[in-house]
Amino acid sequence: MKLTIKSRGVYVPTWLGNDTEPEETQVRFHWRALSVSERQDLYELEPTGNEEQPFRVNMPKNALFIAMTERIENLVVDTGEGEMEITSAKELCETPGMSELYTEVYRFYQSLDSVDKKK
């Protein structure tokens, strides 16, 4: 079986009508698919305090989001202390008021299937 893999792409969020803006001003998330090894490296073991099941496997949402986002285009936020251009997922995660945008893009990342079924 031969598979065609889409390992990179660009996502244009619908948040606040972004997808209806002129293409040159749209906020764009450049993403990349992670390998199994890269995903496994994001997992953390948390102690549970339970002898029967001493650890719980956890992957912080931000870890996957940050690892998959290569860069962000055209996102400028007025923080009240001046304008700030957000170009990375880490910056977006640390900026107040970005939870709806974060959630939309994170859900898109979760829905990705890197195998191109059209080929």
Tell me what the structure shows:
This protein has 119 residues and is an alpha+beta fold. The protein has one domain. Helix content is 28%, strand content 25%. It has helices spanning 36-42, 61-68, 89-93, 99-111; strands at 8-11, 28-32, 44-47, 55-58, 69-73, 75-78, 83-86. It has a three-stranded antiparallel beta sheet with strand order 1-2-5. Strands 3-4 form a two-stranded antiparallel sheet. The chain has a two-stranded antiparallel sheet with strand order 6-7. β6 (75-78) and β7 (83-86) form a beta hairpin. α2 (61-68) crosses α4. The longest helix is centred in the last third of the chain and has 13 residues, at 99-111. The radius of gyration is 17 Å and the shape is flat.
Query: Can you summarize the main beta sheet?
Result: 3 strands, antiparallel
Q: What would you report as the Rg, rounded to the nearest angstrom?
A: 17 Å
The percentage helix is: 25-40%
- Return the average pLDDT rounded to an integer: 90
Spatially, the strands of the biggest sheet line up as 1-2-5
| Number of beta strands | 7
Counting helices, strands and paired strands, the structural category is alpha+beta
What is the strand and helix layout of this fold?
Blueprint: E1 8-11, E2 28-32, H1 36-42, E3 44-47, E4 55-58, H2 61-68, E5 69-73, E6 75-78, E7 83-86, H3 89-93, H4 99-111
Antiparallel strand pairs: 1-2, 2-5, 3-4, 6-7
Helix pairs in contact: 2-4
What brief labels describe this structure?
119 residues, single chain, 25% strand, 4 helices, three-stranded antiparallel sheet, alpha+beta, flat, 7 strands
